[in-house]
Design a protein that fits this description.
Number of helices: 10
CATH topology of the largest domain: Quinone Oxidoreductase, Chain A, domain 1
Enzyme class: oxidoreductase
CATH class of the largest domain: Alpha Beta
Helix content: 25-40%
Largest sheet: 7 strands, mixed
CATH architecture of the largest domain: Alpha-Beta Complex
Cofactor: Zn(2+)
CATH superfamily of the largest domain: Medium-chain alcohol dehydrogenases, catalytic domain
Pfam family, one: Glu_dehyd_C
Shape: globular
Catalytic activity: D-glucose + NAD(+) = D-glucono-1,5-lactone + NADH + H(+); D-glucose + NADP(+) = D-glucono-1,5-lactone + NADPH + H(+)
Number of strands: 19
InterPro entries: ADH-like_N, Glc_1-DH_arc, Glu_dehyd_C, GroES-like_sf, NAD(P)-bd_dom_sf, Zn_alcohol_dh
Length: 360
């Protein structure tokens, strides 16, 4: 079986035939890969910049890939929710089996840290021709979404973060006097796929969205911003005076210097979502900023990963957007490459990329 593999914590990636025996259990499903998305985590592993990655027990290599769309080839005799020919996306994180959150399907809130994640740590991923998985961890995809459903996994993480935000902000009345969010301003720092999904959801909810990056938009980014009615801000050339005060800042960059200076724009009772992760950068946090966070009742919230219900929520959004923003979703997939080209696009990001996917 052809697969994209790495030697964790060592730089490099290769396409290789691997022999992995995966007999089909009674509650298991054999899935043929159609598309596998590439994200910053994959590139971090390939370039040895992510230190927490490791292979499954008994292996000296790891198969990459956690953003997957596949089609069911075969089902075990006790499988009840899927059949041959169904399209599916797999859940990435699998629980520790010990803490209560993992036992009830909320492994995204694992309390022990002893979870595994497909293609990242302790479990082979989906950059391979086929794989076997438990029915429990597969989410059925409506046939009409098959061309864009590879976007489900990254979107599921955004769905979870927004659900967390709205839950926490129930500490007060956060809607406007007309019961909507149309008076609320959201800054989305970063314009990659995660930033785009935050912009899509927040626009759908009624927020006024400002997409912020340290450069001018690419033609595709400019199109998406205009299509959403959002404003794209180049923070290097445009002054902060152009920005209103913020009810929400979402950082998808992981770069402190990109979002900390914006925090002086935060309103009382506002929120900051930290989503991006980058190692090594340093930026000063002053006592004046801490005082402002305290005095303004500002929420600072980190969010990562997603549960199966968030995957289902992501598919619901894709269904809504299919009729409203299909042009945006199609433009987000900026290139589809065959598997033999995978190392090239995994080592370095193609120019103008929002989302590159491997086509099997």
């Amino acid at each position: 079986m052809k697969a994209v593999i790495v030697n964790p914590k060592k730089q490099g990636v290769e396409v290789k035939d691997v022999d992995i025996k995966e007999p089909l259990g009674k509650r298991q499903v054999r899935v043929k890969s159609i598309f596998t998305g590439i994200c910053g985590t994959d590139r971090g592993i390939v370039n040895a910049k992510i230190t927490f990655t490791y292979p499954p027990n008994g292996y000296n290599f790891l198969i990459l890939g956690h953003e997957e769309l596949g089609i069911v080839e075969e089902v075990g005799e006790d499988v009840t929710t899927l059949k041959k020919g169904d399209y599916v996306v797999p859940v990435v994180r699998r629980g520790c089996g010990v803490c209560l959150n993992c036992k009830i399907g909320r492994q995204d809130f694992c309390e022990t840290g002893n979870f595994v994640e497909a293609g990242i740590r302790g479990k082979h991923g989906f950059m391979r021709e086929e794989f076997v998985d438990d029915e429990l961890w597969l989410v059925k995809v409506p046939d009409e979404l098959k061309e864009i459903a590879v976007l489900t996994e990254p979107l599921s993480n955004v769905v979870k973060a927004i659900d967390e935000l709205l839950f926490v902000q129930r500490r007060m009345v956060w809607t406007c006097e007309d019961s909507t969010f149309e008076c609320r301003n959201a800054f989305v720092v970063g314009s990659g796929p995660i930033g785009t999904f935050f912009s899509l959801i927040l626009t759908t909810l009624g927020f006024n969205v400002y997409i912020i990056n340290k450069r001018d938009p690419s033609p595709i980014e400019e199109y998406i911003a205009k299509r959403l009615g959002a404003e794209f801000i180049n923070s290097k050339t445009e002054t902060e005076e152009k920005l209103p005060n913020a009810d929400l800042i979402v950082d998808t960059s992981g770069v402190p210097s990109a979002f900390i200076p914006l925090m002086n724009k935060m309103k009382p009772n506002s929120a900051l979502i930290l989503f991006g992760t980058v190692e090594g950068e340093k930026y000063e946090i002053t006592s004046d900023l801490i005082t402002a966070i305290v005095e303004k009742n500002i929420i600072v919230m980190g969010s990562v990963n997603a549960s199966k219900k968030d995957f289902q929520g992501a598919l619901n959004y894709l269904s809504i957007w299919r009729s409203r923003y299909l042009d945006i979703l199609e433009k987000m997939i900026t290139s589809k490459v065959p598997v033999d080209k995978a190392p090239e696009v995994l080592i370095s990001k193609p120019k103008g990329e929002i989302k590159t996917v491997i086509q099997w």
